[in-house]
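Person: Please work through this fold.
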Amino acid sequence: QIDDLAEVDYSLSSSPAVFQPFIDLDLKGVFFPAGNYTDSPYVAASLTIPDQSDSMLYLAFSEYFFQTSSFAYYTAGAFTMTIAEETCSYFNINTEIFGSIIPEVAKYSVTPYPVMLKLMSTEIPIISLQKDSFTVQIQGSVEVLAVLPDSTIQSLFTLNIVANTSISLNIFDQKLMGSLCLNR
């Protein structure tokens, strides 16, 4: 078990191949929701590691590994959160701020009320690997809610979002560094 939301099956998928200079261990690496071992909707493609012998250890992670991770966390509800004033002390947005941007909100709410944001992924995030980077495509929505004086909440509007980002990893001065680029 990794955490309260996900588990990973990292059992051997075949017998170890033992050669004079090395041992080849082929691990399965499948994520699933905690306590609910379900078949993944993805099919694992074969993975070939380049034949090199100048390092002591080589690790390879396939797209399948990341896809099952995304599936497990999405199924467990990890990509849903609510941001409220109590959640972060620096979060101080109210309906007056949104009213200056969106006139409909100003008509609806004359008195400034605190705002909550409900963020959720509406589909399983898609992770794909390229030679020098990987991309993550997330489809989601942000619902903006007003907190009324009687502690009830009123939905103001919902934004549907599709974000596609590229992440490149490099090693500089023996440190793993990443750069994030919003593609669209």
